[in-house]
Write a structure and sequence with these properties.
By secondary structure, the chain is α/β, with parallel strands linked by helices. The chain folds into 3 domains: 5-137 and 308-335, NAD(P)-binding Rossmann-like Domain (Rossmann fold), CATH 3.40.50; 148-301, 2-Layer Sandwich (Dihydrodipicolinate Reductase, domain 2); 350-425, 2-Layer Sandwich (Alpha-Beta Plaits), CATH 3.30.70.260. 35% of the residues lie in helices and 23% in strands. The protein has 14 helices and 16 strands. The protein has helices at residues 14-25, 27-34, 65-69, 87-97, 107-123, 140-147, 162-174, 178-187, 196-199, 202-216, 235-243, 305-321, 362-372, 401-412, and strands at residues 5-10, 38-44, 60-61, 76-79, 101-104, 128-129, 153-159, 226-227, 246-257, 260-271, 283-290, 294-301, 350-357, 377-382, 389-396, 422-425. The strands form 3 sheets. A 6-stranded parallel β-sheet has the order 3-2-1-4-5-6, sandwiched between helices. Strand 9 and strand 10 form a beta hairpin. The longest helix has 17 residues, at 107-123. The mean pLDDT is 96. Bound molecules: NADPH dihydro-nicotinamide-adenine-dinucleotide phosphate and L-homoserine. The site of L-homoserine (HSE) has 9 residues, from helix 7.
């Protein structure tokens, strides 16, 4: 009879407790699917006495996750503490050095230290598996690494932070301001302890950096991401974008261009009829494009106890079945290329919202400024005047960020702008 696969779980919060519950509830199913028992030997968290709603009595307890990671009765170290450094990283490094495989949901750690940890894992002939780290319950890592392995990946994009998508869709459906929705999301416990991780786009950018590495065979390069959060998205822009047939999403896009690896995480407009445009609430969506497959759209829960634990268990089961100890990012870490970061110079259409002084020739001046910068207008709408100000929306034809920047600078000098214009990229999806 096969030996059981013995887990050591560090971190018993939302995800850790979810994993314990699945191991307990589905013991027979897990055995049937892997041919061996999957058991928990030991656990670790900060507070031993906390009621976590699940019995932990039958597991050994370690205060120190490093001690847990190196126990003789642990085959797989499951890291569910979080944080890019500190106990999570120390314990993962210790587990690998002690010859254990690692399963983690920690996107921050992988985005910042993935290359170094992958090298350590592969030198020790072990692996790190991380299905839960990107888009929670959506099986995007396995899809990229396994199901689409025969494709040259041309673009990966998606909405990968549920809290931001909740906030943006809630602003639109309830007509609330950014500040009102932020307070609501915070009150509901939807935001990370440091909300900047969510609204600043950092959490989503961690996920994009991991996907890029797998998709393009490059070292994880979080620093190379052009990053902007949702803080400056206003209810006025949400309404105006809707009027022009778009939704605003915190969209991550990664693609190889002639200038290098372009990675962006920023608020973008997408057509409201597209799958990304129709994504509501806290749900995530990842779109993968490959030369043979065309486009694949994955949609599902990006967070929460059950969905995230489900993804962690898929990695545990791979290890229980054996033979799943491939390179961490799909290619040996020593062979991953160092990418040249490319800023988004590829032409794209843009949305411009501006308030013009309501005087003769104001609109003509703006049209002239755009024309002189080589920016062509696709659609335009002027709304009823508000006192002495005329609200104007413009959708441009494809233009480069450089040409748009030139036009925006000239607008600032035009003497007809009542307020600074808002410019947002429109992503073709
Ligand atoms: N929550 C989610 O929906 C998702 C989470 N993730 C990732 O999963 C990981 C875990 O997230 P989540 O469960 O939400 O986090 P929680 O904050 O709910 O839980 C963290 C756990 O780590 C424990 N912990 C903290 N510091 C230490 C330490 N020094 N030693 C031992 N244990 C420690 C805490 O102990 P105590 O309980 O005693 O305080 C707690 O049990 C993170 O990397 C997160 O980014 C990924 C996708 C979705
Ligand atoms: N704060 C994250 C949790 C899952 O990574 C989100 O809202 O998507």
């Amino acid at each position: 009879m096969s030996q059981p696969l013995r887990l050591g779980i560090a971190g018993l919060g939302t995800v850790g407790v979810g994993v314990v519950k699945i191991v307990r509830k589905h013991a027979a199913l897990l055995h049937a699917r892997t041919g061996r028992d999957v058991v928990i030997s030991a656990v670790s968290a900060r507070s031993r006495d906390k009621d976590r709603g699940v019995s932990l009595k039958s597991y050994a307890w370690e205060d120190d996750p490093v001690a847990l990671a190196t126990r003789d009765d642990v085959d797989v170290f499951v890291e569910l503490i979080g944080g890019e450094d500190g106990p999570a990283r120390d314990a993962v490094a210790a587990a690998l050095a002690a010859g254990k495989d690692v399963v983690t949901a920690n996107k921050a750690m992988l985005a910042l230290h993935g290359q170094e940890l992958a090298l350590a894992a592969e030198a020790a002939d072990r692996t790190i598996k991380f299905e839960a780290a990107v888009a929670g319950g959506i099986p995007v890592i396995k899809t990229l690494m396994e199901a689409l392995a025969g494709n040259e990946i041309t673009r990966v994009m998606g909405v990968m932070n549920g809290s931001c998508n909740y906030m943006l869709t809630r602003m639109e459906s309830a007509g609330l301001t950014y500040d009102q929705v932020f307070a609501e999301a915070d009150g509901l416990g939807y935001l990370e302890a440091d909300p900047a991780l969510d609204v600043g786009g950092i959490d989503a950018a961690h996920k994009l950096a991991i996907l890029s590495s797998i998709a393009f065979g490059t070292k994880v390069d979080f620093a190379g991401i052009e990053l902007e959060g949702i803080e400056r998205v206003s209810i006025e822009d949400i309404h105006a974008a809707a009027d022009m047939g778009y939704k605003i999403k915190l969209l991550g896009v990664a693609q190889i261009t002639g200038r290098g690896l372009e990675q962006r995480m920023q608020p973008c407009l997408v057509p409201d009829t597209s799958p990304l445009g129709q994504l509501e609430g806290g749900t995530n969506m990842v779109v993968i494009e490959g030369d043979s497959i065309g486009q694949v759209v994955l949609r599902g829960p990006g967070a929460g106890e059950g969905p995230t634990a489900s993804a962690v268990m898929s990695d545990v089961l791979d290890l229980a079945r054996g033979g799943a100890r491939g390179p961490v990012f799909g290619q040996p870490a020593k062979d991953l290329r160092t990418s040249t970061p490319a800023t988004s110079q590829l032409p794209a259409p843009y949305y411009l919202r501006m308030s013009l002084d309501d005087k003769p020739g104001a609109l003509a001046k703006i049209a002239k400024v755009l024309g002189e910068a080589g920016v062509s207008i696709d659609r335009m709408r002027q709304y009823g005047h508000r006192e002495t100000v005329a609200p104007v929306l413009i959708v441009t034809h494809k233009t480069t960020p450089a040409a748009l920047g030139q036009a925006l600078s000239a607008m600032a000098e035009s003497g007809v702008m009542a307020t600074s214009p808002v410019a947002l990229r429109i992503e073709e999806v």
